[in-house]
Amino acid sequence: MPSDELERLLAWVRERSPRRVLLQAPPGLTKVAREAARALGEMGVEVVVSGGMCWGGCDLALREAAELGCDAIVHVGHAEFVRSPSIPVFYLEHRYQNYEPVASLLPEMLKALEGYRRVGLGATVQYLDLLGRLAEDLRRAGHVVMIGRPSNHLRYSGQVLGCDYSTMTSLDGEVDAHLVFGSVFHGLGLALISRKEVFAADPHSQKVVPLRETAEKVLRKRYAQILAFRSCRRVGVVVSVKPGQRYFGLARWLVGLLRGRGFDAELVVVDEVRAEDLEGRYEALVNTACPRLSVEDQDRFRVPVLLPGEVMVALGLTSWEELLRRGFLSSYPQSWVMESWTSSALPESTSPSEV
Amino acid sequence: MPSDELERLLAWVRERSPRRVLLQAPPGLTKVAREAARALGEMGVEVVVSGGMCWGGCDLALREAAELGCDAIVHVGHAEFVRSPSIPVFYLEHRYQNYEPVASLLPEMLKALEGYRRVGLGATVQYLDLLGRLAEDLRRAGHVVMIGRPSNHLRYSGQVLGCDYSTMTSLDGEVDAHLVFGSVFHGLGLALISRKEVFAADPHSQKVVPLRETAEKVLRKRYAQILAFRSCRRVGVVVSVKPGQRYFGLARWLVGLLRGRGFDAELVVVDEVRAEDLEGRYEALVNTACPRLSVEDQDRFRVPVLLPGEVMVALGLTSWEELLRRGFLSSYPQSWVMESWTSSALPESTSPSEV
Fold first, then answer.
1. How many helices (H) and strands (E) does chain A have?
2. Residue A348, phi then psi, degrees to nearest 5
3. DSSP symbols for A20-82
4. How many Cβ atoms from other residues are within 10 Å of residue A3's Cβ?
């Protein structure tokens, strides 16, 4: 881990003097978490490690921390997502400083981008410190490179999340293609809502993957799930308690909407959305938790797992084309879903975050 | 569902007038939950269904209820376990009234009990209302039948839980065999801590199963895991946030004890204890959550998942025989584990429930 990140953490700890810290990291960063744990332990701070999965900055272990009397959280690998959490959080973003994996992929990237002059550039938080140098290298090869400003859930220029690509989609009208440096997962997320070609430059596989075609396939599969949903009756509308995935107002509104259309709809609360817990109980699910679930995990479920916007299409309240135009993953929590149909279909006045 | 249970629920709701209720049921009782949901809905109560697993009365969805603004919980299928929960809880125990499945198993039970004159009798909460009549039938056939009084986590005479058999073990010295009416799972739990033969009379399979031998096999497997633990170094001591499984003081104490013995021990907090989240990060786990996990789910893990008492054996602080005498599942949270070694090994003063 870059020593200045650890230094920043230790300075933060010295300033706040927490007695007991909850340490949370995604599986790929266990080693970084272990280093942080050691350093904290040496400072006399008691460390409790979160043993659950950690899907993103939305998945902040606030409950575990509160229930075990932790007075701070150290969250590894993600940028801030949840605003004003109930417990102080230090985000150890773990940004790579070594340009080598980028440099070695450069020829591949340039080859992929042939014919695309104007390029939108983005990266997951780990690679953000290398993005400026990558932009320079692409420019030197003749490209016009654009890096978008943060909005929505994003904190940094050029940053992407699995559910938020606003830094890049804001450039959609100005670029010929996008390049996401990080993972195929993130590249695919952008390809699902952008109309331009998207390349994922994956430093682990050292491959550059075009994703337009894959995205079209995913979208066709999504449309099939929407059609399947129409013949279901018993529907579970899922709301998660994860701090950054909790859209209770939206979920309640959808329950009312579905009931009004003759569905036997139930509001279902979960932490993780898991097929083994849910699919036997419902003929279809509506997912207001992580939007990527409906894309990445649909195959794990034997029942349709629709996003709020997809429900609107299933009910004939909007068209598939309009959903694509809006970006069926983007602008989560899809407040436009509610805004657009509030006048006609709203069973009661709620906002997505209201309890 | 027996209509008087539903009536009791509705009376409770009329008295408390909750606005929004969280409804929680184990998978096998989805139908009962649905009936309750319908009745609550008709009374104008908003129902939020818990979509996670529900492992017992220990697994009370207090957090989900609090975070979604529910002012009451209806918990189906289990008796009270957590004392003084933070939100009012109605336990819809769902007791069967139909004696038919018991009567049809009676010949099998009598056959199994041949040669065992004095019999300890117990059942899971669903079958408790039928226990008196079963005792009568066994007595009529010449048995001396004993039903133990509740203590520990148990609320009713003759009741058993997966982690508490004190109603029956209290009779161990007076009976020739035990009969658990309910499931092989519960029968096995008793067989692991009783020295008498244990029969499970399972109404679903309509079979009566002797469990002494199976229990001996499980115990030999547990001993092998204890031996395997000794050569591990990186150990995760797991504490769960489930309301009735949270033994933080015990977990912290074990971390200190293990560190003092040269183990690289970490305190790990989880909701569910899941192999996929944990086993890659540790060479061994210590489980202070549900004790049945170490028995039923050991095969899912590639690493030893020891109970606190088993750790004592691994460290040479007690003998396997002494652990069996104490009952390696019983008296959970195994406060005796701490009490017995506090003087020598305690790193700091904590109690099992202390945060």
1. 14, 13
2. -165, 165
3. EEEEE--GGGHHHHHHHHHHHHHTT-EEEEE-S---STT---HHHHHHTT-SEEEEES----S
4. 7
**Contact between chains at A50 and B238 (C-beta distance less than 8 A):** no
Dump pLDDT digits (tens) for A116-175: 999 999 999 999 999 999 999 999 999 999 999 998 889 999 999 999 999 999 999 999
Tell me the C-alpha distance between A153 and A161, whole Å: 8
- Give the closest of B238, B241, B272 to A63, CB-based: B241
Cα gap A109→A126, rounded to integer Å: 19
Task: Report yes or no: B331 and B152 within 8 Å, Cβ to Cβ.
Answer: yes
Chains A, B: CB contacts within 8 A come to 104
Tell me which of 3.40.50.11860, 3.40.50.10320, 3.30.360.10, 3.40.390.10 is the CATH number of domain A215-345: 3.40.50.11860
The domain limits of chain A are: 3-92, 100-210, 215-345
Q: What number is the ipTM of this complex?
A: 0.89
Q: B248 to chain A: which residues are within 8 Å by CB?
A: 68
Whether A51 has its CB under 8 Å from any CB of chain B: the answer is: yes
- Single out the residue of A125, A175, A170 nearest to residue A145, CA to CA: A175
CB contact under 8 A, A49 and B269: yes
Tell me which chain B residues have a C-beta less than 8 angstroms from the C-beta of A33: none
Looking at beta carbons, which residues of chain B come within 8 Å of A269? 22, 48-51, 61, 64, 68
CB nearest to B53's CB, from A50, A69, A277:
A277
Q: Do B64 and A238 touch (CB under 8 A)?
A: no
Which DSSP helix (H) or strand (E) runs through B48?
Answer: strand B46-50
Establish if B68 touches chain A: CB-CB under 8 angstroms. yes
Q: Within its chain, how far is the Cα of B246 from the centroid?
A: 13
Q: By mean pLDDT, which of A341-350, B38-47, B253-262 is the weakest?
A: A341-350
Which CATH number applies to B3-92? 3.40.50.11840
Please state, in angstroms and rounded to a whole number, the distance separating the CA atoms of residues A265 and A285: 9
Q: What is the DSSP letter of A222?
A: H
Q: What is the 3-state secondary structure (H, E, C) of B192-210?
A: CCCCCEEEEEECCCCEEEE
